[in-house]
Amino acid sequence: MAFFLTTTAIFFAAGLIASVLVLLFFNRGASTNLLHLTLVITTTVCCWMMWAIVYLAQLKPLIVPVLSEGE
Amino acid sequence: MGDYQRLNVGRARGGCCPPMDLMRSEAMQLVRIIIPVESAHLTLSYLGDLGLLQFKDLNADKSPFQRTYANQIKRCGEMARKLRFFKEQMAKAGILHSEMMSSQTHIDFDALEIKLGELEGELIEVNSNNEKLQRSYNELLEYMLVLEKAAEFFYSAQSSAAAQQREIEAHQVGDGSLDTPLISEQEMLTEPSKQVKLGFVSGLVPKEKAVTFERILFRATRGNMFLRQAAVDDPVIDPISGEKVAKNVFVVFYSGERAKTKILKICEAFGANRYPFTDDLGKQMQMIAEVSGKITELKTTTDVGLLHRDKILKNISNLFEQWNTLVKREKSIYHTLNMLSLDVTKKCLVAEAWSPVFASSQIQDALQRAAYDSNSQVGSIFQVLHTKESPPTYFRTNKFTSPFQEIVDSYGTAKYQEANPGVYTIITFPFLFAVMFGDWGHGLCLLFSTLILISREKKLSSQKLGDIMEMMFAGRYMILMMALFSIYTGLIYNEFFSVPFELFGQSAYACRDSSCSDATTEGLIKVRGAYPFGVDPIWHGSRSELSFLNSLKMKMSILLGVAQMNLGIFLSYFNAKFFSNNLNIWYVFIPQLIFLNSLFGYLSLLIIVKWCTGSQADLYHVMIYMFLSPTEDLGENQLLPGQKTIQLVLLLLAFISVPWMLFPKPILLKKQHDERHQGQSYTMLHGNEESLEIEQHHDSHDHEEFEFSEIFVHQLIHTIEFILGSVSNTASYLRLWALSLAHSELSSVFYEKLLLLAWGYNNIFILIIGIIVFIFATVGVLLVMETLSAFLHALRLHWVEFMNKFYEGDGYKFSPFSLALLADEED
């Protein structure tokens, strides 16, 4: 669980850094900045969800990989 | 509809944050511009250059002919016709008009009209002359053919006749004079003039008609004729139609005047061109010489004529684009001027137009410049009108956001200032696409192809592309986003052309013992923490791969779907808040949120809890028995402490939220309506400011009949749609699972059955074929068809599942009068 929280924090930090970078380098006035922030936050949330779902699904597996005969 | 004024006030009042770009369409205003007649044209042309006004047609009741500038429009139409004529002529002559704008000299409209007229006259004259010359040239060519062929007939006939003559003579000598037909001989001897009376007609007849021609001739003259035909080797240009036709040269011999007239008529009917011919050899030679002389003469004359025409057309082609734009501009300016109503004094024109609020100063500036430039004594007057009409929807998009906005617009143009799903679509659309298209190898291919488009953006945007190319180019940034997300989800799915990589550390699984004997029967065991990023590579190719991935992707689809639907419901909250519609917040947004989350939010929670605890509980069973027998003990399917109570509460909430959605809103609307009616009849007596406001506010609603039953039925439909929809929409998100499964299976089939199979033969030739087929299959099926299908499914998920939670989409698009857009229009 600790790993989950750490990585979540990393995603959060990445989103934060991206937001700051967008604000610094694409400063186009308050309204446009808000749009950019919304986009960055949505991206971060989507990416985090995707990772979190796949990670959690493998946390306590009910089935284990059974190798094929050929290998 | 009177809300729109209040909206702008509400906007100014602000909130916690500045208004977000693209979230709401631009604030619009209805403006009235009063323009003096003398500067009207220039003003309109400046406003057209600005392109931020959508003029209303104030003369809708007038027919096109009754309008003020009908005459000018007619002139423009005439000029456009002339330009089209020039274009046709240029195309015929194979002269391309330069796309580039030549030196932008100012041309006067009237001068251009005269010039176009002159040029047209000149061109028509040159053309008709050329046509005449060409026709006689073709005639002469045919004549030449007739001369040649007919001469052959006569020559061969003469030689055969001479041979016959000799034979007859020889016969007569040998045979004696006993059986000689005396009478005929006598006739032959006494009346040689009758034989000479045989006349003939020569000419050319189209080949396909030759047989019928002969038959008709035969019948008409009752067989008293003799026809000789010879096919001309190459098709001849018919002088009358100017087309290439295969023809036969013919010579008809006949006797008698009546036969002659008949034959001439038949020739005419068959389109057979007749040419005079003589059987005198000397005359023939003379005629041939004459005709060939004429042919060369005509040839030079037509060449000079064509050269002259080409020169005229070349001159036109240099200026064609400029003229064309000018005419188009003038036509659209006059067309717009016709929408303006003429003042009673006939000294000024009154225009009403929608414009974005931000454009006010630009418009006023343009009006001033126009008044100054046209030396008008009075300037134009600009004023903002208050209206109850719903304004058009206008989003200021850029090259990055426009394809996403286009996606939303093709579902329906947003209502004025309602929350625009386009904002979230920019991210969620490529994301959902990528969930179905998760393979970072394929993602990289997409990325490279779109990067090529983006890097050549400047060059490509100036030239005309094919239909499909145009679409790809317009969506280049969307494809870029799709590619980037595909690379991300591909890394999560751990697929690179269906090959897994151990990029993020070692697999979490290992054999149970050193011999690894039961790896194929019992399976491996987990030896360390779960794979840190994405799907463990060990699953790939294992026998339990599908059951693991199916369970994962199915649950993921539901989680993502519930998240996106919740986002949609929250957007409906923002809409209600923006339009300060408390009813929608309390009686639509909240019960909807409760209903969705008490069923599917709870399911999502169970999924996550099941993953975290590793429980064996059967979620289908839990969900189904939550409805069938909510009081029953869960037994081994228990995931949470007190789950039974939780479920009972949630079920109760879900059941309560249905009537909550259904009844209060229409009842409260009716109450509000009744109150307003009473307010009107009583509050006037108080006469304070507040009541006046109510009164004003009421005016806008006065003519709206309140139909309770209609509103109730509307609400009923909405409620049923939402409740059934929340089940079917959640199920609809399972397409994410199905498509991503199909994609990964297809790519693994291509990899294993093409690439690995070809590799196994140990033959360089087979390997090359295998690689080529693999590349074609990957590009054709995975990169083109799968991209399309994933695109379409992502589109559907946005249009139906996401947007029906909040989007009304019954607005109309702002279509400004813009001269800059004219150039793109195809005529």
Report on this model:
- The complex is a heterodimer of chains A (71) and B (827).
- Chain A is mainly α.
- Chain A has one domain.
- Helices cover 73% and strands 0% of the residues of chain A.
- Chain A is built from 2 helices and no strands.
- In chain A, helix 1 runs antiparallel to helix 2.
- The longest helix of chain A is centred in the middle third of the chain and has 28 residues.
- With 827 residues, chain B is an alpha+beta fold.
- Chain B contains 25 helices and 13 strands.
- In chain B, strand 5 and strand 6 form a beta hairpin.
- In chain B, helix 7 packs antiparallel against helix 8 and helix 12 crosses helix 16.
- Classes of the chains: A mainly alpha (71), B alpha+beta (827).
Which SSEs are present, and which pair or pack?
The complex is a heterodimer of chains A (71) and B (827).
Chain A: H1 2-25, H2 30-57
Helix pairs in contact in A: 1-2
Chain B: H1 3-13, E1 28-36, H2 37-50, E2 54-55, H3 70-93, H4 109-175, H5 182-190, H6 192-196, E3 199-206, H7 210-220, E4 225-231, E5 236-237, E6 244-245, E7 247-254, H8 257-269, E8 273-275, H9 281-337, E9 341-342, E10 348-356, H10 360-373, E11 381-385, H11 402-411, H12 422-436, H13 440-455, H14 457-462, H15 467-474, H16 476-493, E12 509-510, E13 525-526, H17 545-578, H18 582-613, H19 619-628, H20 643-662, H21 664-683, H22 689-702, H23 708-732, H24 735-760, H25 764-802
Antiparallel strand pairs in B: 1-10, 1-11, 2-10, 3-7, 3-8, 4-7, 5-6, 9-10, 12-13
Helix pairs in contact in B: 2-9, 2-10, 3-4, 3-9, 4-9, 7-8, 11-12, 12-16, 12-25, 13-16, 17-18, 17-24, 18-20, 18-21, 18-23, 21-22, 21-23, 24-25
Family (chain A): Belongs to the V-ATPase e1/e2 subunit family.
InterPro entries (chain A): ATPase_V0-cplx_e1/e2_su
Subcellular location (chain A): Endomembrane system
